[in-house]
Structure formats: structure tokens, C-alpha cells
Amino acid sequence: MKGIVRVKRAMDLVEALELRRRECVALVGAGGKTSMLLGLGGALVKKGARVVITTTTRVGREEAARAPSLVFLSKGKYWKKELSRELDDHGLVFVAGHYCESSKIKGIAPERVDELSQFSFVDYLIVEADGASRRPIKAPGPWEPVIPTSTTTIVGMVGADALGARVDETLVFRVGAFCNVTGAHLGETITPLMVAHLFLKKGGIFRGSPRGGRQVAFLNKTDLLTDPRPAHEWAEIVVSSKESMDRAIVGSIKEHDYKVFETR
Fold this sequence. Notes:
- There is one protein chain.
- The chain has helices spanning 13-17, 33-46, 61-64, 79-90, 110-116, 175-182, 192-200, 229-241; strands at residues 5-10, 24-29, 51-55, 58-60, 70-72, 92-96, 98-99, 104-106, 124-128, 137-138, 153-159, 172-173, 214-220, 245-252, 257-263.
- The protein is α/β, with parallel strands linked by helices.
- The protein has a domain at 5-48 and 127-263.
């Protein structure tokens, strides 16, 4: 067990995550990764940074189009010059692999992210490294998440609307894996402890995280809760139970509201 839990409010996502200079941030889990990708990228640009956002899985074309610029690695050998120019012009650029036949855009290999992390003209990389099929909560499959080795901070996410809901496949992505990790059963009510197990147990949200990377737990969409106590209970369990957990954040990207739980 760790020390006393301290709670403080943060003005924005950058402050909530307490990012250092030149970080590579990987987003895993469910419940708002794409909103985090764009929201954190925009917050960093406002502070004068040049930010590349990308995915190692797939993303919807509409979501990618929300970035002010889109650069495809499939367009040929001049993509690096194009990326540098677009970062100078816009500050925020989505780097992708190619269009898929569906309404999705294919991301880039984790090795490409590692390459991007070496570019002097890129201040921050933010990578959506997991998929959840728009569910608020998930456990990873054997091949998930796809986290680059250059990652310095891993943000694990769950939607607060999962708290108090029932365990079933319409709500939980990879429900079998979720039950294995958390000890839950189909039809049970999802409790703060179950959600905490996703962050604390082997095979949970942080599966495959690179050694030395900071781990941050984020419960998003708390604006949907009528009672904040279950969210606060979750945060206190998480930060009190795992030495490698840097902090737990309870908040809403939509409402720009962030409460940080940490131990000192």
C-alpha cells in the first residue's frame, strides 16, 4: 500500500497528465481515446508545441478529419518534408498509413512511431494504441494493445458510464477477457473494484506496457454520473494499490473537468 491520497484539480489535460518535454503518449482501453487524442493534442498546440497524433490500429475517417492536417506515409518518400511543413503551418498533424476499404483509416506500425519520436521537429507524439468498438470499457485480447517501445506515458481509459451497468457484450468489449481479468460474471453490476482490477491486474488495460513508462489511469465521462462517489472510490483504490501507477484522473474531456488523485 502507498501513502495518503491527495486530490487536486487540473486546468487542462496537459496539467492533469503532468507531461514532461518531448513525450510519446499511448492511449489504451476505452471510453474516449479519440477524444483524448484530439483534446490533448489541441491543448499542447495551445502551449506552442508541435504535435503528431496517430494510431497503431484504425480510426474512423471522420475522426481523423477533425485534425487540421492529415499526412499519409503511403504517399511516398517525401512524407517527412510534408510532415515538417504541415507542423509548421498547423501545429497538429494526424499521421496515417492509408485509407481502408471501409470508413476507416489504417494507422502506422509501432516501429514508425519510434522513428517519429526521433524527429527533432516533433515535440510530442500521441498514439491511440487500442480499439474498443465504441464501448465504454474493455479488456485487451492477446494481441492488444499495440504500444510503441518509445512510449513514455501510457494512459489507460474507461468510460464512467460503465460504473453501475451490467456486464454484457453490448457494453463490454471482449467481455470474456474482462471477466477473466476482473473476476466478474455476466449479468453482474460493474463496481468500482471491478474497474480498478482492470488497471491493477496482469492482463488488464496496461498489458504490454514498456518498462519504465509512466502509467496513468483515467476515468472519463464523469459528467454522465449523478453520484461521483463510485468514481472517487475507483480512483482511491487504483492509486493506493499499485506502486507503478503515477496517478488516477477522474474527469470529463467534454467538459474540461479534471480531478487528479495521487499519493504522497
